[in-house]
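S2.1 Query sequence (Alpha/beta hydrolase)
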Amino acid sequence: MNAIAAIEGSGDHRILVLHGWALDSSVWLTARARTDQSRFTYAYLDFPGYGVNRPEAPADGIDGMAAVALDAADQLGWSTFSVLGHSMGGTTALRVATLAPERVTSVVALTPVSPAGTPLDEATYGSFAGAWADPGAAIRGALAPHIDETDLKNLVDRNRSTMDQATWESYLKNWTSPDFLDRMGTYEGPTTLIVGESDPFVTAEYLGDTLAALKNGNLKTVHGKAGHYPMVENAPETVALSEQSLY
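Output structure tokens follow.
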């Protein structure tokens, strides 16, 4: 059984929060300082292999990650809840909604990777795997070109303290290979996809098929220099957009 990393707030609206590939739930720390804790209760999950669950074996695929998320909701005693996820956690949030549509009241997917998978040629896949050697360069070069130097250093430091290379490689396989785009229509609740205006990877065009597959979806943008980590790069606007989109 995986531990919940943190629970904050006392609101009636319950939100399960899922992190992305490069580090654990600490990626949300800047945003957490701005959340409305009277309206919402946030539960921050570390996937197996990350953070408080670092000793656990990585989850098997996006479906395995979604199962971990649903188990966490069960641990909390939450029969219904919203899901907020970032990058691969955003895709996992979408998968949770398709697997348990009767339980999920709304989804916010922040810079999510595609539920149809992200096919990479051998060289590109190798470069993503090899980015473990220098994640800061990879983040700035491919994901967040305008990220503040201090924020980038903090991301890299936390990356090294919350996961290992085997976890990095396992979850790279997970986020590049989901295949449930044809199941997206099974969830009819409100679903908001959010992109960072300067994210060169997850763009509105990249998410076109995902948005088209949703029955009740919309797309929003965090403006300015926000890239793939808008909750770090522009926390005020990201939290505002997210909380406005939770029902």
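The longest strand covers residues 104-110. The chain has a mean pLDDT of 97.
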